[in-house]
What does this fold into?
Amino acid sequence: MTPEALIGAAFATPIAGAAAIAALGRAPNLREAATLATAAALFLLVLALTQSVLAGERPALMLVEMMPGLALRFEIEPLGMLFGLVASGLWIVNSIYSMGYMRANGEAHQTRFYVCFALALASTIGIAFAGNLLTLFVFYEALTLVTYPLVTHSGTAEARRAGRTYIGVLVGTSILFLLIAIVWTFEIASTVEFRSGGILGPDLDRATLAALLALYVFGIGKAAVMPVHRWLPAAMVAPTPVSALLHAVAVVKAGVFCVIKIVVYVFGTETLGRADAAAWLPYVAGFTILAASVVALRSNNLKRRLAYSTVSQLSYVVLATALLAPLSIVGAALHVAAHAVGKITLFFAAGAIYTAAHKTEVSQLDGIGRRMPWTMGAFAVGALSMIGLPPAAGFVSKWYMLQGALAASQWVAFGVITLSTLLTAAYFVPIVYRAFLVRAPAGEHVHGEAPWTMVLALTATAAATVFLFFQPAVPLALARALAGS
Amino acid sequence: MTSHFPILQVVLPLLAAPVMVLARRAGITWLIAVAMSAAVLGMAGWLFVQTGAGETISYAIGSWPPPWGIEYRIDAANAYVMLLVAAIGLLVALYSRASIAAEIPADQHYLFYTMFALCLTGLLGMAATGDAFNLFVFLEIASLSTYVLIALGRDRRALVAAYQYLITGTIGASFIVIGVGLAYLETGTLNLADMATRLPDVSDQRSVRAALAFLTVGVSLKLALFPLHLWLPNAYTYAPSAVAAFLAATATKVAVYVLMRLYYSVFGAKLVFEELAVGRVLIALSLAAMVIASAVAIFQRDVKRMFAYSSIAQVGYITLGIGIASETGLIAGIVHLFNHALTKGAIFMLLGCIALRAGGVGFDRIAGIGRVMPLTSFGIVIGGLSLIGVPGTAGFVSKWYLVVAALEQGALWLAVLVVASSLLAIVYVWRFVEAAYFNAPSAHIAALKEAPAGMLALSWVMIAACIYFGLDTRLTLGGATDAAGALMRGWP
Amino acid sequence: MTVIAAQFTYWVTIFIAIAGLYIVIARGNLIKKLVGLSIFQTSVYLLYIAPGKLIGGTAPIYSVDFAIYSNPLPHVLILTAIVVGVATLALGLALVVRIREAYGTIEEDEILAQEAPPDAVATPRP
It folds into this structure.
């Protein structure tokens, strides 16, 4: 198949899958099979594209010319390839996990759930493969709208309120800031295409560049830079497979992906560096990292703690990108993959704990490691990745980020990363310690491990976290290609 | 034959009206209405294609040569508007059969179609004419039939709404006559193109500026520019659903066209925007409309009323584009004219489906309707997304061009206000989403079925058009660019 | 003085227009509003016709004895406008009849009192 056909097929597959899932709504087993088949097909198609991208090609596909000079088109470059691989690969695992979770908890509206999932993945592929800012924006908005029914799945008043925050913050920031930034870019550069070295030209002054960058960073609400991060903890009201999707696979990764892509392909690291227009961003990102870590430390609700951990980890990526050094850009791109596998493991574990033991608070987790060894073992691996210790993938990305900070003589960034490592350890290690080494209180009801599909999924992602530490070849190659461009 | 299309498309509905009165039976009059609308659409389409190349068609009525006789002058600008009106007319004509069956007593159906035909005549005549007084005549034809159409609503408040609209609308039309009269006194001609050649010589006269002022106020009343919008919420809320859909999509749009024609082709952009501060006034009033009307929409108890206030806000976007007075701004205004007509027409049609089944569209009545009428509710959601300006819908294209136009003028604050008012749209669209999908349906609602297939299909044609024209903008944007070009070139 | 005399017709026009508009706004009786509207429209007729009569102009029928003719066009236009005005008045009165049937009154404040205020504000959630 030609690369163009592959791109078209990759984009069309989740959409066709969504239709199939909707049609098979009455036959749950067939419906789940459709989801898995679609996910597998998507991953294989994306994998097939990786070859050509690693060889230096940039396959492209034009969809439609929306307005004169502004087309919806796809063009894959290394970062998009990496994001696509992570998203499609983890969808398979997430689908297996969802089947276990949804059935074990007897959730309603499961067809709507799987259909929206498939459409969310279609939007994610659209973002990953976007060839210009307009396409990126179209699928960015589509992703928000398609995940709204997932966030408000339970239909309770609390879900409705959370949905309002979700839509309000994400659509609000994207229309108020991101759209203005894109149109302003179009006005300056007469184009919205992504190009190596940026499209803005060398003549812009520092204030304009800084303002434009700020509009982008705060307009991309999905990157959860404070203060536009509020949607993320609000979205925890969703079922855990959705949180896993939001925090690992699609939504947040789309956010930081957009930030990296815009810094590298719209502004260009050279342009930003010469004008010193990104000097404010490490401080904002650094503040987010530390503040979110402190809130995580003080959160008793497990999902809330994981949510703020995500806010913190996302700003690692933003911080590393803001340093504009090649090594830190490599670290940022790697962290997209590393955080994905690590965080999804943690969320899978949280959902398993809820399903098997009906526990949601950290304080309730004493001794649970005895009863749920696989779950808590995976949790420990995920925690290692978050802290950034070997043999977890998070170590590799953090290593590059620290190297980049050193190379650019950015001592504040170095300090922030180090300090937050300690804070992360402070809010993860006690959970693991108490799960395994403290006795469960007497009189608790007996429970076993979670359903086998969920355990399978979380073991797989924990294994992937460790695997990526030992074999980071493909993500590393893609990240290096990105930084070199 | 084709050379007579400019007048034929106006005369055909005019002749159909008395035929319908004589025919009396609802089914036959409906068929006549549909046939007439289809023929008119064909003619409008032909004229649109002809003028797309930049040609101006001049038709002398009764072969009396202009400027002494009445002239119909079709160029890219009014061909665009006439195509829109004709297309909406056909869709509403098809849709109205099932819709009015529930809202208007059966013995009055033929009168509905008669008035519909007359309204179509009036609107098309307003768009096609090149004579100032002829403009007034067709304006009044359209307005009078509109008053009757509104008064056909079920609720007795429709009568009061029609009466209030009659009073304010007649004052507006009288202002237009005064404006035309003053312009006639200064230039000695009623032919718009001829007036355009003569006005530059007298443009410093106070009576010319007074004429411009009277015309602006009169037309602004018709297009419901803030603060002359007070008739619109009641009129749209209490009118029958098919009427609301038709009016929301056409009446204000033709009035906008008249305003653009007067500003650009007759008085000239130099006088209006450079010597006088009309552009700035328009921008100020448009911003007020966008923000205040959107904010008021959020607090309404009735869904139809909420979208009526939304219409006032959206017309503000159109006039904002005109007020920016650049080519991009004009294109933005014209394309939003088209896109909003599609969006609002579709939304009101879908609301008509809900009204048919549920008996009303108050927020208390539609709780949980997303479960029992999924296609209808989802269609309204898509229409709402187009109002917000989500990419992939037609509304996004207009928003994009408006922001581009604002940034071209270096007015970042204006661009920010345009998008900020979209955020208000999110709030009121989400009110509908939550009411329809998050509440449990009451017993009364739970027993309802989906809308009739015919009405639903027609409404979805409009919604599909919203999405289609959000992705393939060659027709809408190309037509708007041609129209803007034709307007800015002027008539002499 | 000459200013007033020379522009006499325009002063009358303005007076009638304002009087008509005032009646529309100030009177609550629906029929009186229509009367005011008609008075306002009459001022517009005067605005057109008065300038049509040229000083020294004769009736606009061609004759070799006369060189200046009054302008017939305003009369044509105003005939049209009067017809439109009559149609509007008839429609308005028909609406008033139906309003009377529906409400039992044609006083605006009584009608508004019978309905909940049109711009009803949604009750705030507790």
Remarks:
- The domain at 2-115 of chain C is CATH 1.10.287.3510 (Helix Hairpins).
